[in-house]
Amino acid sequence: VMQNVATVMINKLQRFQEVSQKVLKVASCLGASFSISVITMVVEETLLETDDGSISDSDEIASLVTSSVGEFEEDGIWDREPDDVCRRRFSHDQIQSAAFELIPPNERDLFRGSVGNAL
Q1: Is 31 helix (H, G, I), strand (E, B) or coil?
Q2: 3-class secondary structure, 34
Q3: pLDDT of 98-113, one tens digit each?
């Protein structure tokens, strides 16, 4: 049953736009709780390095991350930290695991390295 729940969650997360999936992947590497500003910085750093030109600047990336954050909160994927309005947390550890599963296994070390370098 747990495997079926994980599969359903991964399928749900795969329906988000590419940038939103990137936000989830970064968050999954940062842990159960994370700062929106850190996620924005890491996504900006990694997208500007690898983007095909469709995203033009850091303001656009910040807007896309903010939009994703709202979407994740509405869908119950993330919750606000009760004592810090600038922090979010995965609403369940299985959601964090599913977000991590969005990263292809052969790219995980490189992705984690990119997150670490951006920090």
Answers
A1: coil
A2: strand
A3: 999 999 999 999 999 9
